[in-house]
Specification:
73 residues, Alpha-Beta Plaits, 4-stranded antiparallel beta sheet
């Protein structure tokens, strides 16, 4: 499954890179990208674990950028 999200309020390039790196390391993730310029996050992963992956990704975003709102794109 592949899904895109909008990261409203993302304002740190370094944080975006860290978020992407940590999401890529999650079990079941096949592909992850965080584009700072477009504030778009794309995650592709195992269908059976996708909800778990998205929840973990939201936690990672909140840890680095607590004010960012993650919305489905």
């Amino acid at each position: 499954m592949k899904r895109a999200f909008k990261l409203e309020g993302l304002n740190c390039v370094n944080c975006a890179e860290k978020i992407e790196r940590e999401i890529k390391a999650l079990e079941g993730v096949n592909f992850a990208s965080v584009n700072f310029m477009t504030t778009k996050m794309v995650i592709e992963g195992d269908d059976s674990r996708f909800d778990e992956i998205v929840k973990a990704a939201q936690g990672i975003v909140a840890r680095y950028e607590p004010d960012v709102v993650v919305k489905k794109a």
